[in-house]
Design a protein that fits this description.
about 1050 residues; two-stranded parallel sheet
């Protein structure tokens, strides 16, 4: 017959040893024949008289009556049953009634005595109803129609039918129910079908007392001897129903469905103290109402415990559905005092059932649909609007009204439900439950301790762990929200530990361990805690981790390549702007949040630059770039009239200088590694941007290190935390006294794209993949990965100790290094190679432009770099491919940034450097004409315009110089495709016009000489300007108009 899987075992299976033991107990031999076996159940197996050749269905009613008589030990009762069962009119005629009456058939000495009517037979058989009713009722629901009709006639004749039959069943209800429950496990399937139908009929409308009364049954031992209480009988009914719903015969299962509906209605009626009042419409007395409430409490406690513990664990879907629907209805009608003892277990079971009862087809569709999020939202809406969700909501509404001990008992059960869940519906429901309880019952989460022994902490960690591995965004968002709400009522130390773990997890989920889902979960967790429990970030041994760790990580996270993750970190950062930040020891400087936590921001950026992950390095470099653009990694702003600086301002300047020095050192440490990787250009941009901020202040003639760097120690010659040193004396050093260029001059400096010598900050972490729906999350690693020991905090660098600081970066060395990175060739082809060269050229130009035009550094830098820059821009290489246009344009920009005021003069700044103006202009002009790339033509014109502004008057007045510049401007206007080239050509004319009208101390003579050198080209110049007045680009026409205005007074 096959083995079933329900808790009661199969009614259709037994081993040979069990069968032999049963026959021995029944006093039957091992050589028993099938006929002997049938006779034990009251069936005749021999063919007698007119019954010969008739089938089992035809003799069904007779066999049932014979079996009843055999069970009573009174064979003569069979005749009475036969007489009572007749229904054909022919048996009621006068002659047949006399011929076949009970006296005629049984004689006067029978149990009927002198009576011969139906009434007398009913009275005579009444003492035997206890044994007759179960058999007759079972036969009334036999699967054979003929048997059912015949036995119903007997039943009506025996009991009188109608109300009399109901009264007879009520008098023998308990014995009848017990016998039918036993028959429900009969070996014969016809008997099981009849037993289910009979039970469904007789339990309708019964109350607790009619079933036996008594208190609640809270154990699983149903083998009670003697008095059987109503609770045991109710549980036996449930066990029989569940077993029949999982029967191997379809007829039994169909009959069991009818029984299941009856048992469900009976259970709901028993648990409702107002059920009798509702049915009768009359009010009960107070004493009677108290009795009904006690009975309802006992019934609810019995039924709920059984349904929660066993009913929802059935593998038979029909049985589970029946138990679930009953459970939901019972929960809706019982009172909180009844539910309180089992409320934690009940809540856990309902939550687990939300995923366990979902159709498997939904999991199949979830894995194969293209709209994953849409189907997930639909499944969540379906689970949250069903009867299970209604029952869960009622339990949650009850919790504030129960004792605190019961509320606290719910927390471990929620944790268990989350860890045992096999689908996201349960996990989402647990998250919603946690969020609800945190607002309605915060005392439920108050436990001593802050370790895993605290149920609230354990639940908090499980929620974070589950949110990190959840696949669906809707369920993930619910769990993240629950983490934030729960964190508000958990111990502060555990929240800080979890926040630090999330930050560490975010950093680890990059590079070889690339996991956007984990990064997003970590960011969302920090955001949830920040919005709802930011007060827990302060205190403890670590101080305020909000300012020292959370916000620095958020600042770098704003630069994440994933825009959604970056937006989450942006919210955390914006939340920090409105919070009071306490970074522990030290003082907060400035009004910007970036400056208040500057040491920790730079430390986090340095840690990102040291990471093996390219994405982390890029984020750290972009964060440093932002700090530089905000003038945080720059000298403090001060008034020109300020002659003294306060102690606080001095510390502020010192903090900025130390942070900039450390950031520059780490950027250069990354840049000096030979490998080119995607994003290295961002590191170059950050380094040159920070250095450019300090070069201008360092080159200022009224520089005061006390005001600039917060340095007032006269015992040392130079400030040890100076970011960059402008003196050209150390032209072989990258950092002061390191002889970097001298040490590398004999080695091959070609960029190597295949070697990575960066040292890792983190060991590779194993990132678990997302779980598919229908699979449980393995929480074994949750308590290990989120142990009570918190990760080490990111501490501020030891910047107060001057001996630990590195040597300052040299300006000349940095310029030479940037140029070397820009011009060297790569051994392999890489997509990151060209952007890195462009960044190096732009960074070098930014460095050079940051020096004042009258600075002594410009002539020195021109001496070191001009030959290499001109070689790239103008000279054709003897072998190999020419420089790409982007390199040529970059070198021209850098060359223009090297020009200084009075360039080429015989006295003044740079007078010792020979400048051949004619040769320089010719080379720049030839560069602009020969190059087909418009960027090169533009850069050439701009370089000539800058040269026209800075070149000494003696060199500029040369006819050849002015002629070449006019030729370049004319050629630029012929470019009708690129307006920026035309605009650059007009800037040459603007520079010439400015020099002709310049007014200095020698303005009269110098202006006159300059004007005389340009006047021969006046008509050509005005012609160029007038033609450009009709240009389609407004910037070109505007500049042409401006220049025409300046030359309008020329003679």
């Amino acid at each position: 017959f096959g083995q079933t899987t329900n808790h009661g075992g199969s009614a259709m299976i037994e081993t040979q040893e069990q069968a032999a033991e049963r026959r021995s107990t029944e006093g039957r031999g091992s050589n028993e024949t099938p006929n002997d076996f049938m006779e034990a159940f009251g069936f005749e197996t021999t063919e007698v008289g007119g019954a010969a050749g008739m089938n089992e269905a035809t003799l069904g009613a007779y066999r049932e009556m014979a079996g009843a008589a055999f069970a009573l030990g009174r064979q003569d009762i069979l005749y009475a049953l036969l007489i009572l069962s007749v229904s054909h009119p022919c048996w009621f005629s006068e002659d047949r009634r006399s011929a076949y009456s009970a006296i005629a058939l049984l004689g006067e000495s029978s149990f009927l005595g002198n009576g011969s009517g139906t009434q007398e037979m009913q009275e005579a058989l009444r003492p035997h109803l206890t044994k007759l009713l179960p058999r007759i009722l079972r036969a009334c629901h036999d699967p054979n129609k003929q048997t059912r009709e015949q036995m119903k006639s007997l039943y009506n004749g025996l009991t009188g039918g109608g109300a009399e039959a109901r009264q007879a069943i009520t008098q023998h209800l308990l014995s009848t129910i017990d016998t039918l429950i036993d028959n429900d496990a009969n070996k014969l399937w016809r008997a099981r079908v009849g037993a289910c139908g009979a039970l469904a009929e007789i339990i309708v409308g019964r109350d607790w007392q009619s079933l036996g009364g008594g208190g609640p049954v809270l154990d699983d031992d149903l083998d009670v001897k003697g008095y059987v209480p109503a609770g045991v009988r109710l549980l036996r009914l449930w066990r029989a129903t569940i077993r029949s719903l999982d029967d191997v015969r379809g007829a039994v299962r169909d009959s069991a469905e009818t029984l299941g509906r009856g048992v469900r209605a009976l259970t709901i009626r028993l648990c409702d103290p107002m059920a009798s009042e509702k049915s009768s419409g009359t009010k009960r007395a107070r004493e009677e109402m108290l009795s009904l409430e006690r009975d309802a409490s006992a019934a609810a406690a019995t039924a709920l415990r059984y349904l929660v513990r066993h009913g929802l664990n059935q593998n038979c879907a029909e049985a589970t559905g029946l138990c679930l629907s009953t459970l939901v209805e019972v929960v809706g009608i019982v009172r909180p005092t009844i539910l309180e003892p089992i409320l934690p277990d009940l809540l856990r079971s309902l939550l687990l059932a939300m995923s366990g009862l979902e159709p498997n087809a939904l999991n199949y569709l979830q894995l194969r649909t293209t709209d994953q999020e849409g189907l997930e939202r639909a499944r969540l809406q379906l689970s949250q609007s069903g009867p299970l969700a209604s029952a869960v909501n009622k339990l949650l509404e009850m919790l504030p009204k129960v004792a605190v001990s019961t509320q606290q008992a719910v927390v471990p059960e929620l944790d268990t439900a989350l860890r045992m869940s096999a689908g996201f519906a349960t996990r989402a429901a647990v998250a919603d439950s946690v969020a609800s309880l945190c607002s309605t019952c915060p005392a439920a989460f108050e436990f001593p301790g802050a370790s895993s022994g605290n149920p609230s902490v354990r639940l908090l960690r499980a929620l974070y762990y589950a949110s990190e591995r959840e696949r669906g965004p809707a369920a993930k968002d619910k769990m993240v929200h629950a983490v934030g709400v729960l964190a508000a009522v958990c111990p502060a130390s555990s929240v800080r530990s979890l926040a630090l773990r999330a930050c560490d997890r975010y950093a680890r989920s990059t590079g070889n361990n690339e996991d956007p889902t984990s990064r997003k979960s970590s960011a969302a967790t920090i955001r949830a805690i920040t919005l709802r429990a930011s007060q827990h970030f302060s205190g403890g041994k670590r101080g305020d981790i909000f300012g020292t760790r959370i916000l620095p990580v958020a600042y770098i996270g704003r630069k994440d390549a994933d825009k959604k993750i970056a937006s989450i970190w942006e919210e955390v950062w914006e939340e920090g702007k409105g919070s009071a930040i306490d970074v522990g020891e030290g003082e907060n400087f400035g009004s910007r949040l970036e400056e208040m936590i500057l040491p920790y921001l730079v430390t986090e950026c340095i840690g990102a630059l040291r990471d093996v992950s390219w994405a982390r390095r890029v984020s750290g470099a972009n964060a440093l770039q932002d700090l530089s653009d905000l003038n945080v990694l720059a000298p403090i702003p001060r008034s020109t009239a300020m002659s003294q600086i306060s102690t606080l301002e001095k510390k502020r300047a010192q903090s900025r200088a130390k942070a900039s020095s450390s950031a520059l050192y780490q950027c250069l440490e990354v840049l000096t590694k030979p490998r080119i990787w995607t994003g290295k250009a961002d590191v170059m941009k950050a380094a040159t941007s920070i250095a450019s901020k300090w070069v201008g202040a360092e080159a200022s003639p009224d520089k005061n290190e006390d005001l600039l760097y917060g340095w007032d120690d006269d015992s040392q010659s130079a400030c040890p935390w100076k970011p960059i040193l402008l003196s050209p004396s150390w032209n072989e050093d990258l950092f002061l006294s390191d002889s970097w260029f001298a040490a590398s001059s004999g080695t091959d400096m070609a960029i190597d794209d295949t070697t990575n010598v960066a040292s890792p900050q983190h060991e590779p972490a194993t990132i678990e993949t997302e779980v598919e729906d229908g699979e449980g999350i393995n929480f074994d690693k949750c308590d290990v990965g989120l142990a009570d020991t918190a990760p080490a905090d990111t501490a501020q660098g030891d910047w107060d100790n001057s001996s630990s600081l590195q040597a300052p970066l040299t300006f000349v060395g940095f310029c030479k290094f940037a140029l070397g990175q820009a011009v060297q060739k790569s051994q392999t082809v890489s997509d990151a190679y060209l952007p890195y060269k462009v960044a190096a050229f732009k960074g070098l130009a930014s460095l050079l432009k940051s020096t004042p035009p009258q600075s002594f550094a410009r002539p020195q830098i021109f001496t070191f770099l001009s030959s290499d820059l001109l070689r790239i821009a103008v000279d054709k290489p003897e072998y190999g491919d020419p420089a790409p246009p982007v390199a040529v344009a970059g070198s021209l920009d850098c060359l223009a940034a090297c020009f200084w005021e009075g360039m080429g003069s015989e006295s003044g700044l740079g007078s010792d450097i020979p400048i051949h103006g004619i040769d320089l202009v010719d080379r720049l002009l030839s560069c602009g004409i020969k190059q087909p790339a418009w960027t090169v033509r533009e850069a050439s014109s701009l370089c000539l315009a800058e040269l026209a502004t800075k070149l000494s008057s003696a060199n500029l007045r040369h006819h050849r110089v002015v002629s070449d510049m006019m030729t370049c401007a004319t050629n630029a206007q012929k470019d009708r495709k690129f307006w920026r080239v035309r605009l650059a050509g007009l800037k040459i004319l603007e520079s010439l016009a400015e020099r002709a009208g310049k007014s200095t101390e020698k303005s009269d003579k110098e202006r006159q000489l300059m004007l005389e050198s340009i006047l021969p080209f006046k008509e050509e110049l005005i012609g160029i300007l007038r033609k450009t007045l009709t240009d389609s680009e407004v910037k070109v026409t505007a500049l042409a108009t401006k220049v025409l205005t300046k030359v309008s007074w020329w003679p």
